[in-house]
Amino acid sequence: MSDTNGQTNERISGIVGSNDVVLFMKGTPLFPQCGFSSRAVAILEHCGVNFEGVDVLQDMEVRQGIKAFSDWPTIPQLYVKGEFVGGSDIMMEMFEAGELQQLLADKQVSPAS
Fold this sequence. Notes:
Elements: H1 3-18, E1 21-25, H2 35-47, E2 52-55, H3 60-70, E3 77-80, E4 83-86, H4 88-96, H5 99-106
Parallel strand pairs: 1-2
Antiparallel strand pairs: 1-3, 3-4
Helix pairs in contact: 1-3, 2-4
């Protein structure tokens, strides 16, 4: 593993560790660049929580590194309180079942003000 991979992992770990809810996505929460990222943003907004959006299109190291970090091949990726939750399909299934809202409540994620 090269040093840049270690540095990228540290950066990702820092982002995940310093925000209650993080969405690694294509684009930004205001301007998602793919349908899956757009759907993930809509789900989180519907849940009424603040989240950090990380645009992987702006950083190729993070774009590749996040896939290894989570051992998950696709983007977007959701983390809640440092724990990998899944991509947009899993988010949608959990949201429709009420499980995502329950997870956010269980993890004591503050509602957006």
